[in-house]
Amino acid sequence: MANTVVEINNLVKRYKELVALDNFSLKINEGEIFGLLGPNGSGKTTTINCLLSLLSYDKGEIKLFDEKMSPSRRDLKSRIGVVPQNVAVFDELTVYENVEYFCGLYIKDRQLKKKYVEEAIEFVDIADFKKFYPKKLSGGLLRRLNIACGIAHKPELIIFDEPTVAVDPQSRNRILEGIAELNSNGATIIYTSHYMEEVEQLCNRVLIMDKGKKVAEGTKDELKGMIKNTESIVVNVRRLSDEALNDIKGLHHVYDVKYMNGTLTVKCSGGKHNITHVSEYFEKNGIDYDRIYSELPTLNDVFLEITGKELRDKE
User: Fold this and answer.
1) Over the Cα atoms of the chain, what is R_g?
2) pLDDT over 90 (residue 312)
3) Where are the domains of the chain?
């Protein structure tokens, strides 16, 4: 059985009348890449700040590595790496000096620190920029420097908060590959992102929170099984009558039909041969169509169905 790295039990955090965390609980096992998702204002940042003892809380318990976390637990903090959403480096220090500084917060032995700094710089592939100052780096290189600063001391638990915001596709791909490699080398990862395809690609388990509460948790397949939409059939068809739309909506397992600009979307709940039933209806009624294909639900579909589609203020 895997060891528990993070355990949060019944956490409550209030800001006057606002309840930011409402008896929130989670458990993360050693070796997981754990996705922590939620709309803006859901409590993700508050959770992370409480976990790091940067915020006090009103009720509950936080344990890291089976020990109670508190602001004075430097020993536990030294086992954690944080890669924040906003790049947090010193403009007056070079790339090498930045990584050396952050590594030196936890690693005091000079030779070991030098080794770790070099390895972190090589790991994020910024060795050619060691003497550069941050202002001279592109957005993608800055993000990779941010990661090097967070992981140089070789933490066992690494928190990545939106690490690929506003980077080019090449840097984004390198960052995602690096996170997977860190995990394969033994690190436990907490990953937050608004890019659902990244979460789907990386994470073993996902927790969705909203308004300070846990609203869903499980593997990606388990989460997809919680929503009504199990399959969408998409058909490119030039003309379709209201009568045909009603007929299609009456097909077995179909619960919603939308037709716009020559594209028909048929949403199904359950069933194994939905695309066959839709195509058979078209052929039986002599309706010409250009293309028909099936789409399985994504994590984005799960997220929107569980948390709703209304816009949220920023957290």
Assistant:
1) 24
2) no
3) 4-224, 231-296
Answer positive or negative: Cα dihedral of 185, 8, 208, 212.
negative
Name the token pair of 301. 């579909």
How far is 13 from 229, CA to CA, in rounded Å?
34
Q: Is 253 left (phi over 0), alpha (psi -120 to 50) or beta?
A: left
Residue 136 region by backbone torsions, left for phi larger than 0, else alpha for psi between -120 and 50, else beta: alpha
What's the mean pLDDT when you consider all of the chain? 94
Determine what percent of the chain falls in helix, strand and coil, rounding each to the nearest 5.
35, 30, 35
Q: Check: CB of residue 166 under 8 Å from CB of residue 132.
A: no
- 203: pLDDT strictly greater than 90: yes
Would you identify the CATH topology of the domain 4-224?
Rossmann fold (3.40.50)
SS3 141: helix
SS3 294: strand
Please name which of 191, 225, 213, 229 lies closest in space to residue 37, comparing C-alpha atoms.
191
pLDDT band at residue 116 under the 50/70/90 scheme: very high
Instruction: Supply φ then ψ for residue 287, to 5 degrees.
Output: -95, 120
Whole-model pTM: value is 0.89
As a whole number of angstroms, the distance between CA 29 and CA 224 comes to 22
236, 295 Cβ separation under 8 angstroms? no
CA 294, CA 265: separation in Å to the nearest integer?
10
Residue-wise pLDDT for 145-189, tens only, equals 999 999 999 999 999 999 998 888 988 999 999 999 999 999 999
Q: Which CATH number fits domain 231-296: 3.30.420.10, 3.30.70.980, 3.40.50.300, 1.20.120.530?
A: 3.30.70.980
> 24-71, pLDDT tens digit by residue?
999 999 999 999 999 988 999 999 999 999 999 999 999 999 999 999
pLDDT number for residue 167 = 87
Within 109-187, strands assigned E span 157-161
Rounded distance, CA 236 to CA 204, Å? 35
